[in-house]
Here is the input.
Amino acid sequence: MSSTIRALALVACLTGGACGAQQEPSVQVRTEPVQRAPIAERVTAYGIVTLAPEAQTDLMLPYGARITRLRVSAGQAVRRGEELFAVVADAGAVLSMQQAHSALTLARGELERTQVLFAQRMATRSQVAAAEKALADAEQALAAQNALGISAAERVIAAPFDGVVVRVGAVPGDRIAGGTVVLQLARSGGNPSPVRVVLGVEPSLRRAVPVGAGVVLTSLAAAAGSAEAPLAGRVGRVLATLNPQTRMVDVQVDLAGRDAARLMPGEPVRGAITARGASHWIVPRAALLRDARGAYVYQVDRGRARRVDVELRVDDGKRLGVDGPLDVGQPLVVQGNYQLADGMAVREGGS
Here is the structure.
């Protein structure tokens, strides 16, 4: 029986050509072509929604007055024409208005009297001209008082547009001087957007964030598991100084009006900014390995794994950009690389 087995083994040896040697093991891997292309890093920054200064209006009176009613508070949304507050002008302002009316009445009477005297040859033409000028001056003075809106009666101040009350600078009973800001009102809606986002970026990354770069914003105030889609914006301005509170560089993000309407002033957000890009070898995240020598990948060179040491340059959240002596003609191992050693035989197979 043993002779028969030996005979069969001899036949297999002669026909198979593998006598006295074992077949070299190989690792099944999956590969992809390697390519060099521009890739931009994603800079993650955190910030808050603010109101654009150009969308804010200060409501004030040009004369002294007393606040009699206050209908709104900070943070309240108001509609155009809605009452905000009411005032009564100070006695001094009312007196100025009354004096303007009296001066106009006097100037009219003086002109009429001078014209009668001129008709009777008892006044000169220059006197008539002087009376006419006095009347014109009195009319202009009264018009100026009317433009101030001074009245002895209570005056109601209404919202000039749909908006949000940002700040309240007085309470009922306060006496305010002319030019004092009573309310600060921010416009809601419209274009340009009344809100913008300010993100804080590490000072070392300031030069990597160009004006016009795309930004993907995610609200941090949304409920956990919310399916609300992120917002897309653009970097509108990168400041050249540090914010004294955060010690970060403020980056202003502009949004389209329809997207900005989804955000509230004061809402915290996270932004992913597309930084300046450069050309690197593009590799999937799974292809990069690390050991004591550093980062490396494997390429397939005539059926064997070839280790290539690389330096990680860019991580855009999905792909990596690396630099190193990669060969564009050798496929990159993207699966099965954890089982490899330099020079090991490989075979390409399924995913």
